């Protein structure tokens, strides 16, 4: 048994594992190095579908390699595009969506997610989200622009209709860093 609280990535995976089932359709809105994509592809199985977006070809390549290595490519579609364009590629309803915001670890730290495109993508993802589906935003703020994106997303999420969505903010208050935090949005109806 674990004695500590779950870190942001562990908590996001906990929420996904308790929402996503075999055969579901899911979205990794920021593929990055592929770890969330791999986790989601395992959850949906070969009967499900994973969409993974990233604006950087390097991230798509990293994700592709990881999915191939673990034989998870059959249920996966990788898209080299801004997540704000997700409605051009996805028509199905989504059971879960994850965003890992900030920059690509090991990549160009000048290329970051921005609140304008993230909120556009979030609006589109909410339209496609099934009842009882979840959207998770893992927010890193230790880079220029990170705090502004977090603040915009906190305002956006706080303003969501509580009759339609439950919104959770999960963060450590006494950690060095700034540690990443999570906004999780569950569709009620």
Automatic annotation (TrEMBL):
The question of whether Transferase is a record keyword is answered with yes
**Entry keyword Transferase:** yes
Q: Which SUPFAM superfamilies does its entry note?
A: S-adenosyl-L-methionine-dependent methyltransferases (SSF53335)
InterPro entries from the UniProt entry: MnmM_MeTrfase, SAM-dependent_MTases_sf
Keywords in UniProt for this one? Methyltransferase, Transferase
List the GO molecular function terms. methyltransferase activity
A GO biological-process term = methylation
Pfam families per record: rRNA_methylase
- PANTHER family attached here? S-ADENOSYL-L-METHIONINE-DEPENDENT METHYLTRANSFERASES SUPERFAMILY PROTEIN, TRNA (MNM(5)S(2)U34)-METHYLTRANSFERASE, CHLOROPLASTIC
**Protein name (database record):** Putative rRNA methylase
Please give the organism. Halanaerobium congolense
Q: Kindly list the organism's lineage.
A: Bacteria, Bacillati, Bacillota, Clostridia, Halanaerobiales
